[in-house]
Amino acid sequence: MAVRWFYLSVVALSSLGLMCILFTVYWMRSWHGGFAWDGTQLMFNYHPVLMVAGMVVLYGAASLVYRLPQSWVGPKLPWKITHAALHLMAFILTVLGLVAVFRFHNQANIANLYSLHSWLGITTVFLFACQWFLGLAVFLLPWAPMWLRHLLKPVHVFFGASILSLAIASVISGINEKLFFSLKNATKPYSSLPAEAVFANSTGMLVVVFGLLVLYILQASSWKRPEEGLMAERQPLMHERE
C-alpha cells in the first residue's frame, strides 16, 4: 500500500508541477504579450516562468531523488550525480530568470532590489548557490571525511526544505506584486478580481499545493532512504506489497 501511495503522489506531483509552469506561461502570453529576449517588458515575462520552473518545480523534483525506492539499493553515486545535476539545471534556469528581470529593469530605468519580493528572492537564490556548492564539495566529491558528512547532513537537509519554502514565498509575493503593478490603472482594479487576478491567484495556489506535497514527501518517514546501518533491518519500500 505504501509503495502505491508513493507513486500516486509522484504522479500528482508531476501533474501539479507541469500545471504550475503551463499556467504561468499562459498568464504571461494571454495578459502580457508573450516573450522576447530583447530587454523589453516581453523579456521580463520570462522571469516568472523561469523562476517557477527552476526554483520551484525542478528544485522540488531534484529534492525527491532520494525518495525513489530505486535509489535505496546499489551504489549511491549515480543518484548523487542525478540529484546534483537536477539542482544545477534548476539553478541555471533561476539565473536566467534573474538576468531577464535585471536587464528589463536596467533598460527601463527601474530600480533593482527595493521590494520585499526582490529581497526574499535574492536571498533564496544566494542560499541555493551556497547549498549547491556545499553539496558538491562535501557530499559528491570524494575528499570530505565521513565525520564531516554526518555533521553537515542535517544542515543540508534543513536548508534544502527551507530554500523550497522561501522559493514558494518568493513566487507568491512576486505574483501579488505583478498583479498590483499591472492592475493599478486598469479599468477593473485588483480588488474587483478581474479574470487575470483570478487566474494568477489560482496559479499561486497551485504553486503552494505543489510545494506542500513536496515537503510532505520529504518529511514522510516511510519514504525516506534508510541509513546504511539500517538497510539490513528495514525492508525497502520498492519490495513492499502490503
Helix content: over 70%
Distance between the termini: 5 Å
What global shape is seen? globular
Mean pLDDT: 91
What's the order of the H and E elements?
Answer: HHHHHHH
* Unreliable residue runs: 230-242
Number of strands: 0
The quaternary structure here is: single chain
Note the total helix count: 7
Share of residues in strands: under 5%
**Rg, please?**
20 Å
Outline the biggest β-sheet. Answer: none
Class based on secondary structure composition and strand pairing = mainly alpha
Descriptive terms for the model:
242 residues, mainly alpha, 0% strand
How would you characterize this protein structure?
Helix 3 (about 45-65) packs antiparallel against helix 6 (about 145-180) and helix 6 packs antiparallel against helix 7. The chain has helices at about 1-30, 40-45, 45-65, 75-105, 115-140, 145-180, 195-220. With about 240 residues, it is mainly α.
